[in-house]
Amino acid sequence: MAMIPVTEMQASIPYGMAVYKMSALEALIISLAGNITIVFVLLRLIPVCVDFLFKHSPFLAHHIKKYFDRLHAKHSMRFYEFGGIFLTLFISIPGPGSGAWTGSLLAYLFNMPFKLALISVALGLAVQGIIVSFFSGSIIELWQWATQ
């Protein structure tokens, strides 16, 4: 579940704790391992997919390149200044659209070096995983207490 773009760790940690009766630490470690694995794959695969797309679809290449250029013109100074920190903080906040997939895409869009991108995303995922584990454990405990 942690590797799927919609669910990621926000669903895999609570699922592991509730359904498989894992401890918060077990669910966190397994989910984090899955999420970081997909980040490694995405950081290598996104450039290949975009190059393929640009090579085989001039129409899409034109429009996507135009979008990339606007994005870079608008945000590149701030991102280059605080890129790793921004990416880590962005991913750290659990919510829709702030996970490994989006973080990997942002790292690609702003040309982050592979190592910096991997470290920034992994740190953000670790913080997010801790937050999700804490809240999931609290909610599960509260539910068990309320249903006794």
Please tell me about this protein's structure.
82% of the residues lie in helices and 0% in strands. It has 148 residues and is mostly helical. It has one domain. α1 (8-18) packs antiparallel against α2 (24-56) and α2 packs across α5 (114-146). It is elongated. The model has no long low-confidence stretch (mean pLDDT 92).
- The rounded Rg comes to 18 Å
Secondary-structure element sequence? HHHHH
Estimated share of beta-strand residues: under 5%
The overall pLDDT average reads 92
- Total number of beta strands: 0
The termini sit apart by: 30 Å
Number of domains: 1
- What is the 3D shape? elongated
List keywords for this structure.
mainly alpha; 148 residues; elongated; single chain
Show the helix and strand layout.
Layout: H1 8-18, H2 24-56, H3 58-92, H4 100-109, H5 114-146
Helix pairs in contact: 1-2, 1-5, 2-3, 2-4, 2-5, 3-4, 3-5, 4-5
Give a quick precis of the structure.
The protein is mostly helical. It has one domain (8-146). 82% of the residues lie in helices and 0% in strands.
